[in-house]
């Protein structure tokens, strides 16, 4: 890429069902509030390319937003959330009560740890970063938007900022959180913003 590419990565907004639970492969839709959160985060923004996780809470909004912008929306299967296995739908407190050792190990984010019956962190990291590189391979300047999940965003922020895996949970990523990064071939990525208008209430 001869010209810098600015990429905005946006988390989906509020979804139907309980909040603050492990939600990976399950596929609830956005609520009306969730859609409004995402629209507010992108107010008056224009993009040259839009991509999305295949899960409904990201894809439905991304396809509608791209259509409004008059551009195509690319679905990236490997930008889906981590598979939480048997922990799907449980809160962190519930998992910690059932199996405190497994939960503590999972929080370390080491490559070989996983939720019970779920995807290993190392496998998750490899598929997300491969999809990121593939999506950006033809980038030549401009503005891009990726709509995805908190877990995917943490992997990308770890890569951009060279953070230790154990530090990933120190980054708050509420509903409709976003970050923007500038990428230029041969240069280190530059984080331009993180959660500029997030609602932490």
Automatic annotation (TrEMBL):
Q: Name one Pfam family in it.
A: His_Phos_1
InterPro entries recorded for this chain? His_Pase_superF_clade-1 (IPR013078), His_PPase_superfam (IPR029033), PGM_Phosphatase (IPR050275)
Q: Name one GO cellular component term.
A: cytoplasm
Q: Which SUPFAM superfamilies match?
A: Phosphoglycerate mutase-like
GO molecular-function term, one example from the UniProt record: phosphatase activity
Q: Which CDD domains match?
A: HP_PGM_like
PANTHER family, alphabetized: BROAD-SPECIFICITY PHOSPHATASE YOR283W-RELATED (PTHR48100), HISTIDINE PHOSPHATASE FAMILY PROTEIN-RELATED (PTHR48100:SF1)
The name this protein carries in UniProt is: Alpha-ribazole phosphatase
């Amino acid at each position: 890429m001869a010209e810098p590419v600015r990429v905005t990565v946006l988390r989906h907004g509020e979804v139907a069902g309980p909040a603050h639970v492990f939600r990976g492969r399950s596929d609830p839709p956005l609520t009306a509030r969730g859609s409004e959160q995402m629209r507010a985060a992108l107010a008056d923004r224009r993009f040259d390319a839009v991509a999305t996780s295949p899960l409904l809470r990201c894809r439905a909004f991304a396809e509608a937003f791209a259509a409004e912008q008059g551009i195509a929306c690319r679905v990236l299967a490997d930008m889906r959330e981590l598979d939480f296995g048997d922990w799907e739908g449980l809160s962190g407190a519930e998992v910690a009560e059932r199996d405190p050792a497994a939960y503590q190990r999972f929080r370390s984010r080491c490559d070989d740890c996983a939720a019970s019956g779920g995807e290993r962190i190392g496998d998750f990291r490899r598929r997300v970063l491969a999809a990121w590189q593939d999506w950006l391979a033809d980038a030549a300047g401009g503005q891009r938007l990726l709509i995805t999940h908190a877990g995917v965003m943490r992997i990308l922020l770890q890569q951009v900022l060279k953070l230790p895996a154990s530090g990933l949970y120190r980054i708050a990523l509420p509903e409709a959180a976003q970050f923007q990064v500038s990428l230029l071939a041969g240069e280190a990525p530059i984080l331009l913003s993180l959660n500029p208008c997030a609602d932490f209430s």
